[in-house]
Amino acid sequence: MNTLRTAMLLAAMTALFMGVGFLIGGSGGMMIALLIAAGTNLFSYWNADKMVLSMNRAVEVDEKNAPEYYAIVQGLAKQAGLPMPRTYLIDNPQPNAFATGRNPQNAAVAASTGLLQRLTHEEVAAVMAHELAHVQHRDTLTMTIVATFAGAISMLGNFAFFLGGNRDHNNPFGFVGVLAAMIVAPFAAMIVQMAVSRTREYEADRRGAEICGHPLWLASALDKIARGAERIPNPDAERNPAMAHLFIINPLHGERMDNLFSTHPSTENRITALQEMARQMAGGNQAAPRPAPAPRQAGEQQPSGPWGQAPQAEQPAEPERPKANPWGRNPTGPKGRWS
After folding, report:
1. What value does the CA radius of gyration of the chain take, rounded to a whole number of Å?
2. Cα–Cα dist 228/245, whole Å
3. What CA–CA distances, in Å, run from 170 to 30, 155, 173, 281, 316?
């Protein structure tokens, strides 16, 4: 089913790309667009994950320079029966995360420093479980291809302004074709992009909650991330809006509406679904996971471990060794808040 969905998506985006080429340059433009689309397909399959990570300035980490964060991902991958993905950090104060890669064997997950600094250990675990759910469902290839095509179609639409109106080009629709290429085609690509993203987020929420065992951990994390995204801009995402649907919460500043023009379902709807899932788990299982605090309920003590260890008795405070943050130092990477 996932292979069929990806093939249909590639066909739809290729057809849209060729349509833009026809509007710009007639049959000749359509053939050029077909060649570009074929190249984009190959590039997307093999290299789009590297491009996405590079555009977000993600740096790979391991158990030496980010031990606790790496251990969370490692434990969750084992819990989900997945290969250990490459693990990245993004030096960005906005709390957010995404996954990418063409298959589980070549997957990568990335979290921002803002996510690690603003969320609890349990909430970080729930977020990374959500991203691993995308990996397990092979959503990462589909979503990355959509991001690449959406960006390429938008770029082609911009070219239409300079090329489409030239009488030397075989443009059968004249200025109307140029206008359609500039506005309608990028808009159509955006609609496909949104539809793909929104239909997968609910399923990734559900599977992520199963992996970590606590739906309310993820509900609380989504609430914090959404409020953080409203207050804290993400310049890299603003420069590359075609990548917005990859993130667990829309990173574009002020994007909240649950309508046709949102890349993500509303956070409130997602939280409600997770709360209902928690109630079903508590009512249907003898050994149901202990719920975490509900969103926006600050001040309550969180569970102590990333996937359900019993809370330990409070110990006397010990002197803390100085370090940049609770997720470990990064002596080999670039200097930054988490280095």
Report:
1. 22
2. 17
3. 11, 20, 9, 62, 78
